[in-house]
Specification:
By secondary structure, this protein is of the alpha/beta class. 39% of the residues lie in helices and 17% in strands. The strands form 3 sheets. Strands 5-4-3-6-7-8-9 form a 7-stranded parallel sheet, with helices on both faces. β1 and β2 form a beta hairpin.
Amino acid sequence: MENLSFDKNNKYSELKKVLIVTYYWPPAGGPGVQRWLKFVKYLPDFGVQPIVYVPENPTYPIVDEKLAVDVSPKAIILKNPIFEPYQLASFFSKNKTKKISSGIIPNKKKQTTLDKVFLWIRGNIFIPDARVFWVKPSVSFLEKYIQEHQIETIITSGPPHSLHLIGMELKQKLGVKWFADFRDPWTTIGYHKSLRLSRFAAQKHKKLEKQVLNSADTIIVTSKTTKTEFQQLTSKPIAVITNGYDVEPVGNQMLDTSFSLAHIGSFLSERNPKILWESLKELTTEIPDFKKYLEIKLLGAVSQEVLETISQFGLDVFVNKLGYVSHEEAIAHQKKSQVLLLIEIDSQDTKSIIPGKLFEYMVSNRPIMAIGPRDSDFAEIITGTNTGVFFTYDEKERLKKQIQFYYNHFLEGKLQSHGIGLQKYSRKNLTKELATLLATNS
């Protein structure tokens, strides 16, 4: 019964074929892989046959072999070789290319000559990104496959935004319905300004962005702010489908006996919350035994600038740097840590960023302490679900009082969150939204 679903009249009907073009796929780790891995997991439940096209030999900065168990057995996986300049650049500095490819860009004041060269090449030679060499062979491969298998709908997911160029060409050649999914913005994303772009390169990025937005039949974004931003560039329909949480095979965890503040994910230089470190430093001197219980848990890549700032405040003795862990281990730490930290860059450009881990944080039953720019989209979600407290970068005293409040509840054994209205952010409900969108716009 392959490619069949059971409809409400108890008759089998053929699943709607949808081709999904994505770069991040298991064994890729990190947040980029989660969105479409989970959509693909549930799409067959809503009458959609997912056909996933991914690179055969990608250069993933983070690998998590355990995510392979989440790949739907009903999905058809297509692979095609990719050439990536990072493979060549790693001969000069494997560590630097790995960091840049994962979005960790050194502070401008601390960039070495090699850092500057790599960033200039990344921003000015490979437009829109270093996966642009996959566009031509992918179009050739998929054009034939689409025709042979009578596929009428395709989805491209970026970043990397070069994948949208694949969708644009296939749309022009075959007239398929094309949905362009933006997990992050393009020219307004935080690191874009750090790429040392020439005027020509900056204009080319904007031109390609506008072409994609006006060629796709439907745009999908993850936040209201990105939708508002894109509405200035296109009149095409734009749907907001956020990231979400899934039912994970991780049971209840024993809470840490320490007063653990956990940050999970990349801790970039620009996300360095000095008001947090200053508040913690002051509390170690003002509250008896605070030093005894404090633990700062850092899971994932952490920039050197963040570690240096922590050290400058004399907090390095409280740091537990665990490095990258599997998604399963990260979920376990979310459930057993006392407080979960969510930090975003203090910039207007990051108001639209809703970190994927937020939704997993929200169902961990642990309070979230978030710091970011004023009017952030994720601040609205946190306050609306009663899962934590949000602070701007100029609210140090309020932040300090909140830490003390959490600490007192920790000592009393009463520290937890009481989330409301979380079900709408489940991956299955979000996939239902996507399936409805595909059905009504194809």
